[in-house]
Amino acid sequence: MSHWAPCLSTAAKINLLILVVSVAFPWSSLSDRVPEFALTKIEESDRKDDSGKEPLTEDDADPEDLEVFYPTHQWQTIHPGQAVPAGSHVRLNLQTGAREAKLPDSNTENGDTREGKRRKRLGKVDVDSSSFTSQELKKALAKMKESEKAERKAHEEEVRKKFRPIEQLKEEFEKLNVKMETDYEIMVKLISTFNSSVSTLDEKVAALYDLEYYVHQVDNAKDFLSMGGLQLVIKGLNSTEAVLKEHAAFVLGAALSSNPKVQIEAIEGGALQKLLVMLATEQPLAVKKKALFALSSMLRHFPYAQQHFLKLGGLQVLRSLFRQKGMETLHVRVVTLLYDLIMEKALLEAAQDGDQLEEKLRQYGRVRLAPALLEQDWCAVVSHMLPAAEHDTREKVLRALGALLGLCRQRFRDDAALTAALRLLRREYRALAAAERRHGDRRGYFHEMLGSVDSLLRELS
Ligand SMILES: *[C@@H]1O[C@H](CO)[C@@H](O)[C@H](O)[C@H]1NC(C)=O
Ligand SMILES: *[C@@H]1O[C@H](CO)[C@@H](O)[C@H](O)[C@H]1NC(C)=O
């Protein structure tokens, strides 16, 4: 087979390939596609495919619909849909893609031509055409036409899928007469709106709101950094306007998410202190929510920040949220953050190997979270949250209780209210899980919840 390509390109140069196929069997597969492809088609396996798998129904193939090509001793173009009788010689004109056929010359039959010999040498299969009747040929042809049609249709679909949306977009943009701007250009504009002394408060808020969308992308967040946007946003954290603080924290949190470069710059820029101040002082709930969001993004997968968070008394700040009125919606978020931090460290410690594992273990070793959790009695804080009304909250609290087991087991055991709450939940989830099963869901949400409750009760008994 490897010989074919060079042979072909030479042949292609002389434009007319004297490809003599002693038969026309899958000739319609020698289609208007690439000649190389067409040439390889005369293979046993292909013939099987063409004649096998999907038999056409009566309606699909009426042999009488097909035209038959009548060969002479001259080469004639075969028109699409024409069936070529057994024994004809067929060639492909590589320049036009047209197929031509004629009656075989008596002295070149049996593959004695140069081409015939070459094809034999290269392992091409000569189909013994004389064994096919014209009826069989028509049938086979009908099948090939079908598969060709399907192929063409699939190809068209593919092209349409690729090009339609772009075409449509362009049209829509042209209609709106909008020039496509890059994310970079847009961010430059938004930052300058936020930074401008002539912008109104609403304009600044809108700019931050839009920026939040862009900085989610890691590359955009890096650009945001190099444009000086991060520093501006950190400065915005202690704006006198609550709504600016809120949106500045929102942008910061988005830019920080899983972005080590931004995490480092932000902690060096003093963002951690400012966020803790926002959480520790009297602020509207909306501001605290976004501050907590940014804090979580800052701490996740960044042991250096976690260490400083503990040093700065961050855990006490979070603890104080449980004493303030009106902050209940923050509680479950705090518990989720703690769960994440505990698991992050535990998973790393359980890891057998990994990228820079030693160095990471060293860094996480400095994050002395457990003693601080015990000292501030987070065991009780979390367990008191369990009689929550919402399944989702319960799920998160159960998860956190599980993560705290290693630390809080004895305290949990001594906590009669916790055991009572767990038993109540067990009763409730047994019923719900049974209902779930009746609806055919054997491993549903309530089944999982019941599993968590059961395993906690087992651990505490
Ligand atoms: C914000 O504005 C100040 C004063 O107009 C300017 O010095 C500073 O470069 C601006 N910062 C950014 C990031 O555009
Ligand atoms: C903002 O922070 C700076 C330093 O961190 C501080 O001096 C300033 O008083 C703060 N402003 C407000 C409005 O909180």
Q: Which structural class fits the helix and strand makeup?
A: mainly alpha
* CA-CA gap between termini: 73 Å
The first-level CATH class name of the largest domain: Mainly Alpha
CATH structural fold name of the largest domain = Leucine-rich Repeat Variant
Bound molecules: 2-acetamido-2-deoxy-beta-D-glucopyranose
- Low-pLDDT ranges: 1-66, 107-131
How many helix segments?
22
By CATH, the superfamily of the largest domain comes out as Leucine-rich Repeat Variant
Biggest sheet, open or closed, and with what strands and sense?
A: 3 strands, antiparallel
Count of individual beta strands: 5
How large, in whole angstroms, is the Cα Rg?
A: 37 Å
- Residue share in helices? 55-70%
Which architecture of the largest domain would the CATH scheme give at its second level?
Answer: Alpha Horseshoe
Order of helices and strands: HHHEEEEEHHHHHHHHHHHHHHHHHHH
What would you say this structure looks like, in words?
Strand 4 (89-92) and strand 5 form a beta hairpin. The chain has helices spanning 4-13, 35-39, 44-51, 114-121, 134-176, 183-195, 201-215, 218-226, 229-236, 242-256, 260-268, 271-280, 285-299, 303-311, 314-320, 328-350, 357-365, 369-375, 378-383, 391-414, 416-438, 445-460, and strands at 67-68, 76-78, 82-83, 89-92, 99-102. The chain contains 22 helices and five strands. It has four domains: 10-129, no CATH class; 140-176; 181-368, Leucine-rich Repeat Variant; 377-461, no CATH class. It has a three-stranded antiparallel sheet, with no helix packed on it. The two termini are 73 Å apart. It has 461 residues and is mainly α. One 2-acetamido-2-deoxy-beta-D-glucopyranose is lined by residues 238, 240.
